[in-house]
Amino acid sequence: MRVKGNNKRGSLRIVGGRWRGRRLTLAKAPELRPTSDRIRETLFNWLAPHIRDARCLDLYAGSGALGLEALSRSASSCDFVEQDPRCGEQLLDHIQSLDCERRCSCTQAMAKEYLKNYRGSAWDVIFLDPPFGRSMIEESLDQLIEQALLAPDTLVYLEYGRREQVGWNKYLTCLKQKETGDVAYGLFQLR
Question: I need a labelling partner for 80 at 20 to 30 A (CA). Which of 26, 126, 127, 191 fits?
Answer without folding.
Answer: 191
